[in-house]
Amino acid sequence: MLKIAWSEIFAHSLPEGHRFPMAKYDLLPEQLLYEGTITSANLFEPQPLAEQFILDTHDADYWHRLKHLQLTPSEIRKTGFPLSEELVNREVVIMNGTLQAALFALQYGVGMNITGGTHHAFTNRGEGFCLLNDIAIAANYLLKYENINRILVVDLDVHQGNGTAQIFEHEPRVFTFSMHGGHNYPFHKEKSDLDVPLAEGTDDKTYLSLLQHHLPRLLDKHEPEFVFFQSGVDVLATDKLGKLGMSIAGCKERDRIVLELCHRHKLPVAISMGGGYSKQIAHIVEAHANTFRLAQQVYF
């Protein structure tokens, strides 16, 4: 059964000025339930993640200052959010959503988090709307507690997964692969194990050709036991922040390539939704909904 992390806290604990694009966290399950792609049995509500699992990834000093709202004004500004207790609580729930999705993936083949993909969070700081790194926390949990020894992170958000790259820079058991806008945020890139920078305006054909070239080779060469997929839809031509030229159909084909390859290799995959900032919320919801539809089709 496809299991999907969802909580009202995902959309309703955000500052007023950030709620428009985040409305997708309510609209997505409504759309998927309405069309029959999922039922309420597919949804689970994660609880806040225990502190010990946060500290397996993030520096104790940073976590202490974050949870006690003691970040400096400069640190807060870099996150893009006004810091609040509600925001930190939201982030801690998101972390457990992805961790639980990973555990469901071990059981069912795939697990999903309607939010997550907070790949700009480093061990000791937050950036770009990310306070803690859900993929890194879940990956470290699998390494430490679930006897998983080879993990592949497939980050296809339009922005480089700089925080994830930094966290696993010296961890050979985790291979980080990021395809992203070469001239987009973050303007100082970290070094992933494989970075594929894309030119502005990159279209479906070029993008999909590059993905089909790199991903099968990575699976064959590194033989991962588990995959984390960051499936941001800010690759769309309609995205306000993306600067690429992909269509909704092209974005869907991207997800199909990833999921069919993982399924063919019998690889469990945990999916975090990542970014999406198109002016029309319908474009965001449709592109994200395709990921859930494909997960049902491919795995079940």
TrEMBL record:
Signal peptide: none
Domain Histone deacetylase: residue ranges: 18-289
Coiled coil, from the record: none
Keyword terms: Hydrolase
One annotated GO molecular function: hydrolase activity
Pfam family, one: Hist_deacetyl
Similarity annotation: Belongs to the histone deacetylase family.
Name listed for the protein in its UniProt record: Histone deacetylase
Biological source species: Pontibacter cellulosilyticus
Source species taxonomy: Bacteria, Pseudomonadati, Bacteroidota, Cytophagia, Cytophagales
